Amino acid sequence: MVNPYGELFTRPGTHGFALAGLIARFPLAMAGIGIITMLAMMRDNYALAGAVAATFALTLAVLAPQISRMVDRFGQRKVLPGAAAVSCAGLVALPTCAYWQLPDWSLFIGAVMSGFMPSMSAMSRARWTLIYRGTPKLNTAYALESVLDEVTFIVGPPLAVGLSVALFPQAGPLVTALLLAIGVYAFVLQRSTEPPVQALSGARQLSMIRLSGIRILALLMVAMGMIVGTIDVVAVAFAQSQGQPVAASIVLSAYALGSCVAGLAFGAMKLQVPLARLFLCCGVATAVTTLPLLLASNVLGLTLAVLVAGIFFAPTLIVAMTLAEQMVAPERLTEALTWLISGLGVGVALGAAATGQVVDELGARQGAVIALVAGMTVLGIALYGHRRLKPDVITAAQPA
User: Fold this and answer.
1) Phi, psi (deg, nearest 5) at residue 292
2) Which of 95, 159, 187, 206 is least surrounded, with the fewest CB atoms within 10 Å of its CB?
3) Spatial contact of 282 and 158, defined as CB atoms under 8 Å apart
């Protein structure tokens, strides 16, 4: 039996950029929780820790698409090292300021600098697109990338926390900076697979978010991210309310497991269903699978509900990325994909913040209402967008 994922790596250079890209994307999963852990241990101030981490997340959401836009214009090799250098400097400045007990405002400067971190997921997807554009293997490559994203968010946060707890508080952010430097440097060395820079016409220099199709997909990713953020908070709060705080990691792993398995299976399929119809089906399924979250009465029930909720995350992400690839010119793909990834990050932050308020006021179980609202939003966007995301409409789309 042919392994569809093994077939991806028959092209020269694919092993190199895939491994480097995996290393370089771990910092995205490690930075926020690493900052919170470090400041909580050193300053014993969760409000400050949360504010600094939120500053990093907001800066990242704003700057990542702009960095990717520059990548499309000048190339990965010319842009990524500089952006990563600024981010690494910020990740080193944060623990330095904390260690020397410098004023709180200095921490926010470090957080803003850290937010220059490039979207390495988009960079890897752009390389796969260059290699397999127009072939069924591109869907498999996007599935692989989605699974790798999940892996970093399974391993990254515990690694960042474990380093700070086992070694010293600053270890998490410092190792994050080291991984970013090594990963990006190794990634840009893989020149044979780097997408070439193509001349841009004046009309195409507008931001990709001005395309209606990209806005639809970015909004979908915000809603999807809200589901993830809600599950993060609900898992911790619910496990603590049941007197089993350690069980939160099991609940969160169930979500990632469901998404990983579904992503691998989806990528291996050779479906002949139009993407617009898949987009609608994924939206419906995502909304329906948030319902069991409201019914969980114990940790086992929540784990099963979260496992079900995770099944359609990776397939929906794969379909959205594939649609984005079809609706933009090749020379603007990196920016377009980054808007989707940034939308996901914004959604996670919004979902976590909203769920935290609900949990504080009404309790852990009621926090799942935010996931249900986000699921219904996904459904609404899918119903609205599936007719507007067909290739014939996409191809003719003009900036709004």
Assistant:
1) -60, -20
2) 206
3) no
